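Example with several molecule types.
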Amino acid sequence: MELFDVTIIGGGPVGLFAATMARLHGIKTLLIESLNNLGGQLYTLYPEKPIYDVAGFYGVTGKDLALSLIEQAEHFSPTIVTGESVVRVSQTDGAIYEVVTDVQTYRTRALLLTVGIGAFVPRKLPAEGAASWENHGVYYLMPPLDHFKDRKVLVVGGGDTALDWTLAIAPWASQVTLMHRRDHFRGQEESLRLIRESPNVETKTPFELIRVVGDRRLDTVVVKKVGSDSEESWSIDDVVSGLGFLPSLGPVKRWGLTMDGNTITVDPASMATNLPGVYAAGDVAQYPGKVKLIATGFGEIGIAIAQIRTYLDPSKHGLPHSTNLKSVAKV
Ligand SMILES: Cc1cc2nc3c(=O)[nH]c(=O)nc-3n(C[C@H](O)[C@H](O)[C@H](O)COP(=O)(O)OP(=O)(O)OC[C@H]3O[C@@H](n4cnc5c(N)ncnc54)[C@H](O)[C@@H]3O)c2cc1C
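Resulting structure tokens for the full complex:
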């Protein structure tokens, strides 16, 4: 069975950049992604949302950033497997890890876990009728934005996900109502400022969604001001949940790693976990002061790949400050 130097588990933005960096530094690399598409949260959760805080890009959409990362990685020819979930990792004799997916088994000397928030499990809207309108009136994953053209949209939630989706939908919709069950929104102040300046967006607090109603298509939501008994009906075409996603790491929790809730505890100086030769980066990696951003994950990859390179060959230290393509040719 083929032996890889490093196996990266999770093909989100951080795992994809890890594949590029590992190959660039001559490491024989396997990347395994459980979904059929690469790109993680960028591609699956917010493909059309613009991103402003990744170096070198202004307002790149999630999908375009994912496609750029895929193209960059493919230049360096890592082995990429999609549609396989890693269910178990275990160390065999001679410091080799077996990586067992729901399809087959791989062998690797080191592991880099970039599993993010795991499977994408949306927090469901606690409203009567919401389940029966899922994907044709009630949305947990963002459909193409032109779907909202000239429609009246209700976005539910008070954090960054709800605020981001409100701003992404507003240029298309005739009207967006952002509703939150508390008095104050938790999301970024700058997003709130932009929302307040948007002529077709209104905010409603503290309101909660009671029912979603329609005949052949969704046309009404029934809401209630928190603390009052009287219900109101609003004419709405689409409901978008901005309640976020439940972390669902599933089998990762049984691999013997030191966990802190749904994150893996790492040493930020090395991105090493408690298991020898096993590293973690991106949203899943936790240490004091951690900020869950794409830019942070990219930085962590520089540290992790340097350490993995030394782990694989103790005569090598750090990473060269300038990259070239000679090292790739050696593998
Ligand atoms: C609505 C929204 C807007 C955001 N906006 C921004 C923004 O503007 N700027 C910013 O910097 N960040 C933003 N973020 C956060 C950003 O998307 C994350 O920080 C980033 O996606 C983390 O990347 P990752 O590769 O660590 O994890 P993920 O993107 O979660 O990718 C992890 C991948 O691992 C796979 N996986 C999980 N378990 C397994 C397994 N057992 N086997 C195989 N594969 C597995 C998953 O399927 C997934 O594809 C936003 C997030 C959301 C939800």
